[in-house]
Design goal:
By secondary structure, the chain is mostly helical. It has helices spanning about 10-20, 50-60, 65-75, 85-90, 95-110, and strands at about 30-35, 50. Helix 1 (about 10-20) crosses helix 3 (about 65-75), helix 2 packs antiparallel against helix 3 and helix 3 (about 65-75) crosses helix 5 (about 95-110).
């Protein structure tokens, strides 16, 4: 990436990706989990793992224009057989989830959205 400032969408996706970049920080079937594996909110202080959807939630908190933009962009990239990015996260590998995020980041940068 160049030194130019990232768009709000690209910056949000980069932050969310960083939260789950390490496989030990990623989870399935919950937006977030604590160190004991219990389901917690993705923004909770005790949260040590997040799913893709939870990582977006941790970056943005409440649903807003920015979080919706990232979710819509990623949803447009997944096969139609998945109902949501949460389903995609739960049914694919960590590597697949990161690849999806990379595609979303590239598109956001290319389109400056």
């Amino acid at each position: 990436m160049s030194n130019r400032t990232l768009s709000k969408t690209a910056a949000g996706l980069v932050k969310a990706r960083a939260l789950i970049a390490d496989k030990k920080d990623w989870c399935i079937h919950a937006q977030g989990r604590d160190r004991f594996g219990q389901s917690v909110g993705p923004s909770a202080a005790s949260c040590t793992q997040r799913c893709l959807y939870g990582a977006l939630g941790a970056v943005y908190g409440k649903w807003g224009e920015s979080r919706m933009a990232e979710a819509m962009l990623l949803t447009s990239l997944i096969p139609r057989s998945y109902r949501s990015i949460a389903d995609y996260n739960n049914e694919n590998s960590h590597e697949d989830v990161l690849a999806l995020m990379d595609k979303g980041i590239a598109i956001a940068i290319q389109r400056n959205i």
